[in-house]
Amino acid sequence: MIRVAVADDQAVVRMGLRALLEREPGMECVGEAADGAGALALVRRTRPDVLLLDIRMPGMDGLAVLRAVAADAGLAGTRVVMVTTFAVDEYVFAALQAGAAGFVLKDGAPDELVNAVRVVAAGEALLSPSITRKVIGLFGRHGAGPVEGLDTLTPRERELVAWVATGLSNEEIARELVISPETVRTHVSRAMVKLRARDRAQLVVFAMRAGLTPPA
Questions:
Q1: Starting at the edge strand that comes first in sequence, how are the strands of the sheet with 50-53 ordered?
Q2: What is the rounded average pLDDT of the residues 174-179?
Q3: Would you tell me which of 6, 8, 39, 151 could form a disulfide with 54, CB atoms 3.0–4.6 Å apart?
Q4: What is the Cα–Cα distance from 53 to 56, expressed in whole angstroms?
Q5: pLDDT tens string 73-82
Q6: What DSSP line would sit under the chain, residue for residue?
C-alpha cells in the first residue's frame, strides 16, 4: 500500500486528489493540509511514502516544506512530488535542488499524477515532458559547468545519467536502448554512488549541470 499525503491551499484540489488516490488500488490518502506548516506537521505525524505538495501556499511555502522534509533524517522515507499550476523554470530547478523526486502540473491528466506517485514511491524520479523541456532549456541558456565526480563515470554510466535527465523511467530508458531495466538500474545506481547523489532527482540536476545529453 502506497501511503500518500496531500498539501494544497485549495480545498477543491485537495478533495480531487484524495478522491483520485482513494479509487486507485494499492493507494491510500493518509491526510490533507491547507498550508505549509500544516503540511510539515502532517508529514511528521503520518510519515507517508509520498507527499503531493503545492509550491505556492500561505505562510510557509512548498519549497520551504520540501527543504525541511529533506533535512529531516527521520523523514528519509518520504518522497516529495511537487504539484503546481506554475511550470516556471526557477521553481522547477529550486525544487529539484531541494530534493523533489517529481514535478507534475495540476492540469495534467489524472493518470499522469497517479503514475507519478507510483514511479516516485518505487524510488525513481519523475518530471513531466513539458517541465523537462523547460529545465533543459534553462541549462542550455546558462551553459554547462563542472560536476565533481563526473570523470569517475564510465562511458555507459555517463550515457545512462544523460538518459535519466530526460525524465524517462528505467523501463522507458531500457526500451530506448534495447537493454534490460535491471542493467539500467545497475548503471544508474553506480553513477549515483560516484556522484554522491542522494536520489535520482539530484542525478537529473547533475546531468543538466554537466551538459550531458543522450546520443542523437
A1: 27-33, 2-7, 50-53, 79-84, 102-105, 126-127
A2: 95
A3: 8
A4: 9
A5: 899 899 999 8
A6: -EEEEEE-S-HHHHHHHHHHHHTSTTEEEEEEESSHHHHHHHHHHH--SEEEE-S--SSS-HHHHHHHHHH-GGGTT-EEEEEES---HHHHHHHHHHT-SEEEETTS-HHHHHHHHHHHHTT--EE-HHHHHHHHHHHHHH-----TTGGGS-HHHHHHHHHHTTT--HHHHHHHHTS-HHHHHHHHHHHHHHHT-SSHHHHHHHHHHHT-----
Q: Residue written as cell 524520479?
A: 125
Q: Give the amino acid at 122.
A: A
Local confidence band at 44 (pLDDT 50, 70, 90 cut-offs): very high
Single-letter amino acid, residue 199: D
Alpha carbon of residue 53 to chain centroid: 11
Instruction: Give the Cβ contact number of residue 180 at 10 Å.
Output: 12
The predicted model gives 118-143 an average pLDDT of: 65
132 vs 40 pLDDT, higher one: 40
pLDDT score, position 96: 76
pLDDT in the model for residue 65 = 95
